[in-house]
Amino acid sequence: MKKLSLFLIIIIIFAGCGKNTVEPEIDIYSYPINVGNQWIYEVYENITSEYDTVVVTIVDSIPMRAFATEDHLSCMEIWELKYLEHTDSIEVLIHVDNFQLFFENMIINIMYPLEVSKSWGNDIYYDSAFVLEKNTVSTLYGSFRDSYRIESGRYGGPALHYYEAFKEYWLTSDVGMVKLYVRITDGLAITDSYTWNLIDINISR
């Protein structure tokens, strides 16, 4: 099982944020971001054929004055990832149209609003993403209509030290991520590969 931990370090000035009454110009908040929101996923390890469960809970939301404006909220959230045998946490950066989840060995970078054929990239992390389709996706929780399937990857390095973090995930408005597939390649070998499949949700808007 991968070891997820805090990854992003930002030096900023914090100020009151919480639930701001100002409506954002871009509806990035189609991803439920309230503290206390919870998603439960079945985790399947593709290399070892082992199953696990992870409970993802938003435990804190920290405002960031340095990036906020009168029209846009800017926050960093702490998400707890509780597996059957261990607990980790990740940081999630939310700013205007950008939504970034920082894992130990990869980044999921989402640019709102979503639409089919939209793409984006990040030169710093050599990460790029493409929205492949808007369709119905089936999960262990049930089926979700009008969900976006996105492929993204981070690539770089010479042949023998080549690194790839390939991700495919489904996003549903007002629900969040309902499916996730990850494949990590380091050098010539796949070092990690797993799938998250939504089992249950407990969210508020």
Write the layout of secondary structure elements.
Blueprint: E1 38-45, E2 50-63, E3 74-82, E4 87-95, E5 98-102, E6 107-111, E7 119-122, E8 127-138, E9 143-156, E10 163-172, E11 176-186, E12 189-202
Antiparallel strand pairs: 1-2, 1-12, 2-3, 3-4, 4-5, 5-6, 7-8, 8-9, 9-10, 10-11, 11-12
Could you describe the 3D structure shown?
Helices cover 0% and strands 56% of the residues. The two termini are 32 Å apart. The protein has one domain (28-202): YmcC-like fold (Beta Barrel), CATH 2.40.360. A hairpin with a 4-residue loop joins strand 8 and strand 9. Strands 6-5-4-3-2-1-12-11-10-9-8-7 form a twelve-stranded antiparallel sheet, with no helix packed on it. The protein is mostly beta strands and 205 residues long. The protein has no helices and twelve strands.
Total count of strands: 12
Q: Which CATH top level class fits?
A: Mainly Beta
CA-based shape: globular
Return the CATH topology.
Answer: YmcC-like fold
Largest sheet: 12 strands, antiparallel
Radius of gyration: 17 Å
Which strands sit side by side, in order, in the main sheet? 6-5-4-3-2-1-12-11-10-9-8-7
- How many distinct folded domains? 1
Secondary-structure arrangement, i.e. CATH architecture:
Beta Barrel
Work out the helicity level: under 10%
SSE topology string: EEEEEEEEEEEE
Q: Which range does the strand content fall in? A: over 45%
The assigned structural class equals mainly beta
Distance between the termini: 32 Å
The DSSP helix count reads: 0
Q: Which stretches are poorly predicted, pLDDT < 50 over at least 5 residues?
A: 1-27
